[in-house]
Amino acid sequence: MTVHVLWYVFLSGALALATAAVFSRLVSRIPVGQGQVTDAQKSKLEEISGAIAEGSMAFLNREYRVIAVFMAIFAIVVVALVDWTSALSFLAGAGISVLAGFIGMKAATRGNVRTTAAAMQSVAAAFRVALNSGAVMGFAMVGLVLVGLGLMYLILSAILSTQSPQHVMEALAGFGLGGSSIALFARVGGGIYTKAADVGADLVGKIEENIPEDDPRNPAVIADNVGDNVGDIAGMGADLFGSVAESTCAALVIGAVAFATDTQALLYPMLITAVGAPIALVSTFFARTGSERGIAPALKRALIVSSVLMAVAMWFVTMNVLPPAFDFYGAHYTALGVYYCFLAGLVAGLLIGIVTEFFTSHRYRPVQDVARAAETGPATNIIYGIALGYRSSLIPVLLIAITIFVGYFFAGMYGIAIASLGMLGTVAVALTIDGFGPVSDNAGGIAEMAGLGEAVRKRTDALDSAGNTTAAIGKGFAIGSAALTALALFSAFLVRSNVHSLDLLQPMVIAFLFIGALLPFVFTAMTLKSVGKAALAMIKEVRRQFATIPGLRDAYQLTQASLDKLKAGGMSRERLTRLHSILDKHYPSEEKLLAAVRELLVRYPPAVPDDQIKAVINEGVVKGKPDYRACVDISTRASLREMILPGAQVILTPIVVGGLFGAEALAGLLAGSMAAGVVLAISSANSGGAWDNAKKWIETGKLGGKGSDTHKAAVVGDTVGDPFKDTSGPSLNILIKLQAIISLVFAPFFAHMSALLH
Amino acid sequence: MTVHVLWYVFLSGALALATAAVFSRLVSRIPVGQGQVTDAQKSKLEEISGAIAEGSMAFLNREYRVIAVFMAIFAIVVVALVDWTSALSFLAGAGISVLAGFIGMKAATRGNVRTTAAAMQSVAAAFRVALNSGAVMGFAMVGLVLVGLGLMYLILSAILSTQSPQHVMEALAGFGLGGSSIALFARVGGGIYTKAADVGADLVGKIEENIPEDDPRNPAVIADNVGDNVGDIAGMGADLFGSVAESTCAALVIGAVAFATDTQALLYPMLITAVGAPIALVSTFFARTGSERGIAPALKRALIVSSVLMAVAMWFVTMNVLPPAFDFYGAHYTALGVYYCFLAGLVAGLLIGIVTEFFTSHRYRPVQDVARAAETGPATNIIYGIALGYRSSLIPVLLIAITIFVGYFFAGMYGIAIASLGMLGTVAVALTIDGFGPVSDNAGGIAEMAGLGEAVRKRTDALDSAGNTTAAIGKGFAIGSAALTALALFSAFLVRSNVHSLDLLQPMVIAFLFIGALLPFVFTAMTLKSVGKAALAMIKEVRRQFATIPGLRDAYQLTQASLDKLKAGGMSRERLTRLHSILDKHYPSEEKLLAAVRELLVRYPPAVPDDQIKAVINEGVVKGKPDYRACVDISTRASLREMILPGAQVILTPIVVGGLFGAEALAGLLAGSMAAGVVLAISSANSGGAWDNAKKWIETGKLGGKGSDTHKAAVVGDTVGDPFKDTSGPSLNILIKLQAIISLVFAPFFAHMSALLH
User: What residues of B are in contact with residue A382 (Cβ under 8 Å)?
Assistant: First the structure.
């Protein structure tokens, strides 16, 4: 019967990987130069998307090198303080998460330009390409988690064959630690990267140099597009990879107490994700649309279908795999009760997504109120946005509290872990939808840079806008599951530490509860500062390029030699002046420059033959080429350097506190961190999302539209919100999870130190 | 021996009240029209200060009416759900807090104009008047707490003579509830009042109408000055009154378990404040200075002297009053241990003040960095300010955690309550210094409005600036003591509920821990919204007055009849045009208008005799008088209306949660609220303070000075920070304390409900 469950896990994992491979092929086989594309456009498309892909891989390569060093050192620490089997699964978890991230990034950087190409045909085609690109990440991640966990379980069982299943599961927890460590790099490092590039591109490009967004003359524009992938694809993927791996490990560790002899029931937690994979595949078929308005509903449909199917399927699985009734630390629970825990998590996840959308979409009142507050200036816009974020955490936190209560009530600590896996039951679909966003965003940027025209841009904008809506759902989902995952790990940590009641009236516990509540705030302050520093480095580089690269500011400028030639050719003074004034303007493409010159030639009668002028212009135009790579490099270096401090806080705090003050003090710290961290994470994400969409709502022509004072005030809010929603907020997910998994893995070390100190 | 301790409490209380009376007389006997004041200036001074006093009293009167209704209803609730003795001490506590607030406000509204008058002589004289005005509040408050608590103890002992001392102390806890309820009105209502008036005055006056700050033409200017008193005098006074009353009650309730038979030791907590009063009197003599630079050091000197003397005196008192060793819930503690608890609180309070000053004064790096961030616009200014606030909570929270640990370690739950009283040991001096601030601020405003000239304004500015520095210390102090007070009440609540260990692994406890952490955020969102609504009402009123009151915008305008008269008198067209252009400008005083007209008469040769013109102008000038009272009324009504929702949250949450889910769930909620609330309160206050002082630093001529783009960006930060530092931040003190004292007082109701439900 054991074989049966594990076989199913491997089968489902293989299916998910095969699905990812098929989607990847579906995307790749679309030619970049399709249909009405000119050769010039095709080479432009290839050039731009090549630069983005190159930048993304450059970031990954450098990040992987840093990660390799970190992993080696941390593995040694684990071996020294815990044991080598935990270190082994740590390395496996980290390695597999890196692989999942790599596959996702490859798919996204291939999918973006193909979405642009497909958008030249129809919305439906572009939608499919973007969705398929996202699906590669979603299914690859789920497949790799399943296969990885299953294999590691087999390996550890073989190595630790003389030990209890609990020992095996405790060693397996290292897998979650590995996944979460990579998430630290991806979320914190990626979050710093994306905002440094974004702020750098906006502040110098849009404000100082007054060139439009996604303009190819902006040296940071590629880094900005790379940032979308780094932050939203690699970051979100690693975050949810960590959640799934950690929740599963937590459930396995806790469950090992109850199901020591029943291996089928023991592996039940792995089955939840295994059941989810084929259901996710079915659900994606429901995400089809032909119209621009149908995009967001199609994405949501897939998520809801997936949830409903999961709810049904898991009833059968739970009732068949788990014993009808079982005992756990003296309490009596039932399989049906465990199913309720699963269901509570699943439903809470969906509801949190809906609430998040309500508070961050400009179709609803809250965001519109924030926009209206911008009418009295940036200050009121900011105050309303902060208040919205704080308020928006009410229902999600109540939902999490109810889920915690339901979980505990029906299956004790095990119930929390199962509720967490329930929330992650639709993770493949959630990741697919989430990957859709940055691919569409990139596709729009590429269309703009390649000068593909209004119609194409309109289609990619529709995709991007739908992606924004569903991104909000994904973010709420990521935070909610992080909270439950952290709590599941917290429970597993207490089980492993033999702490069966945690007295809040113990001085150490209450004192560290206060310190724990402090950590998310200090961490946020650090990540905000990191973004600031990295952005400053980027701003300097962009300014340097605009100042030193000839012809960059205007993209197309006549060389002095060409002008001299024209003058010598007998061009009139008036015409020459006109020519200069034309060249003083900005031209996003060479074509447009030539069109302007042609108009000049018609208006001012020729003193020089047209063809001669054209020839001179054609040969003499300086096409100022920005050094994209330098910007990508700056963002890469700065983000990896600036993540050291916040990263060190997250990793060292639990080890130091647990080592010096013991497991109970650490438990108080974790409780405080989780409670305050969840609220801060939700409010950071939602304030940021609300400011962003308030600005976008105004840009649709409301309250004076683009360029009005109200819009300017809203831009301030948007800029404030950026690091909160894309760096510090999502990074808090990692803070609460990583602290908890470190506690779980290092529990034996704390016990050892405690014995040593007392 | 009992008589001995209580006698001392009454004696010290009487001394404090006498001191307050003497300081009050010292202030009152200073004539408003002193020395070089002209009759016109004197009547102006009297008019303005009269309006402020009238506005302040109007607010108090209306607030008291609302409070009376609230107290009557809430007293009935307490009688119904708890017992009538608790209701009795609730009414006593509330009544005495109201009295303390009234005395403080009277002193402040008398002191402000006399500080202005004294500033015409010297800084030293003005400093003394402002300090003495603040001292009235400080000493009256401490005296009333001591006498009130002492009397209530005697009364309750007589009524409950058959009951145990524990019962008496539990009934006495109602006194703390009364004090804290008034603090709710004073802090939340006062906080909304002061910011509505401030924002209304600034947004319409400074920005729309372009008239300077504190200009008498601004209809909201009196409300703004009233707001300073309402927020900083009544608000801070009631807040700290609540802290002292509550901490004392908490210590008495907990101590009754250990010292049931030793009445001397039982009343030890009251002695701490009683020892503080004479020491505070001595310390004020150290606050003397003759120079502008010496003001802030003089204030700090008083605080440090008070701390040192307290540390010494309390050693003798503790060792003599408490038994050398005693048992408490099975643990063994010593008098020396209790002294350490006291000392930990005292030192932590002082250190928190110092850290707060470091993060909010523009003499140090953090605020200067926030100012520099304004160079790249308002968004970076906001981000840096928020990060500063989060970061600044690190050391204060660590200090609180250490104090908690020390308290618990040396004397269990009793130690926490004593540490809290230790932090409040210097409360009379702290309140004196704190009252100094708004009095100086008001004095500056009055000097400006009365047009007393540069020299006087410079002196009051120096006082105001020092007041700002020490206000930061006071705020940190208020938050720190609120945290410890709340924890002491939390402990007393658990003692009263017979909860001797609070298992965080109980589903209810952990679920409510999350919900508890949420409350400060939701509360902040509500208070921010309240400020927004109240400010909007004020803005509308100010706009209405500027639009409808003739001559208000320019303060002095010729009537049409006067102009016709001049024209008929043969005034030349050119001269008439000139006259009009002069009258189009703003004149802060009638004198300046006449000076301008005189200049006109010299430049343009007369066609009408000078005296005739003068006569016409003199009789025909419309002095547009703003309706100050309407603005005061709007702020008063709006603030009292808008505090209903946040107030209801604070009061109802513990009663509902405790009633429905029991004491342990409520304890989880309180723990979460305290942990998250303290961090949010500190960061709100410090972010706001930093933005304020970053702006002021720029106004001293740094980074481009007043009027530069950097300054404009800093003004945005200042406006964002205002409601955080003056409304939502300080209101969080009330949230955590009031929730805890309600839990303590209603504990029997929860037990009753629990028995009913199970």
Answer: 382, 716, 720
Could you give the CA distance from residue B460 to residue B214 in angstroms, rounded to a whole number?
13
- At B326, is the secondary structure helix, strand, or coil? strand
Average pLDDT over residues A162-183: 91
Question: What is d(CA B248, CA B275) in angstroms, rounded to the nearest whole number?
Answer: 14
pLDDT of residue B605: 57
* pLDDT tens per residue, range A423-457: 999 999 999 988 898 899 889 888 888 878 788 88
Q: What's the whole-number average pLDDT of chain B?
A: 87
Q: How far is A416 from chain B (nearest CA, A)?
A: 10
Q: What's the confidence (pLDDT) of residue A512?
A: 96
What is the secondary structure of A91-136 as a DSSP string?
A: HHHHHHHHHHHHHHHHHHHHHHHHHHHHHTT-HHHHHHHHHHHHHH
Contact of B576 with B567, CB cutoff 8 Å: yes
Distances (CA, A) of A322 to A101, A248, A266, A314, B755: 33, 16, 8, 11, 37
- DSSP track, B517-553: HHHHHHHHHHHHHHHHHHHHHHHHHHHHHHHHSTTTT
Contacts of B480 in chain A (CB under 8 A): none
* Whether pLDDT at A34 is above 80: no
For residue B381, give the chain A residue with the closest CA: A720
Judging contacts by C-beta atoms under 8 Å, the chain B residues touching residue A404 are: 507, 510-511, 514
Question: Minimal Cα distance from B522: which residue of A?
Answer: A391
Which residues in chain A have their CB less than 8 angstroms from residue B672's CB?
675
Q: Which two tokens stand for residue B443?
A: 């004095």
Question: ipTM score here?
Answer: 0.89
Judged by CB atoms closer than 8 Å, whether chains meet at A514 and B400 is answered as yes
Give yes or no for a contact between B714 and B374, defined as CB atoms under 8 angstroms apart: yes
Contact residues for B367 (Cβ-Cβ < 8 A; gap 6+):
B359, B360, B361, B388, B690, B693, B694, B697
Residue of A380, A398, A679 with shortest CB distance to B676:
A679
Which residue in B744, B750, B746, B741 sits closest to B182, CA to CA?
B741
- What does residue A326 show for φ and ψ, rounded to 5 degrees? -155, 165
Residues of A in contact with B511 (CB under 8 A): 401-402, 404-405, 408
Backbone angles phi, psi at B467, to 5 degrees: -60, -35
Q: Enter the DSSP assignment of B263.
A: H
Question: Chain A: residue nearest B495 by CA?
Answer: A505
pLDDT band at A205 (very low <50, low <70, confident <90, very high): confident
Tokens representing B478 are 């208020």
| Other beta carbons less than 10 A from residue B758's beta carbon | 6
pLDDT confidence tier of residue B539, bands split at 50, 70 and 90: confident
Q: What angle do CA B304, B309, B313 make, to 5 degrees?
A: 155
**A522/B390 CB distance under 8 A:** yes
Instruction: Please report which helix (H) or strand (E) contains residue A253, including its range.
Output: helix A236-258
Give the closest of A376, A393, A524 to B390, CB-based.
A524
Cα–Cα distance for residue pair B533/B538, rounded to 1 Å:
9
Task: State the Cα–Cα distance between residues A576 and A578, nearest whole angstrom.
Answer: 5
- Name the residue in chain B with its Cα closest to that of A664: B504
- Check CB contact under 8 Å for B716 and A378: yes
pLDDT score of B552: 73
What amino acid occupies position B461? D
Measured in whole angstroms, how far is the alpha carbon of residue A435 from the centre of its chain?
Answer: 8
A472 touches A489 (CB < 8 A)? no
Chain B hits for A509, CB-CB cut-off 8 Å, are 504
Cross-strand partners of A503: B503
Q: Is A80 exposed, middle or buried (0-12, 13-18, 19+ CB in 10 A)?
A: exposed
- The CA distances from residue A389 to A9, B216, B333, in Å, are 40, 38, 46
Which residue of chain B has the CA closest to A388?
B525
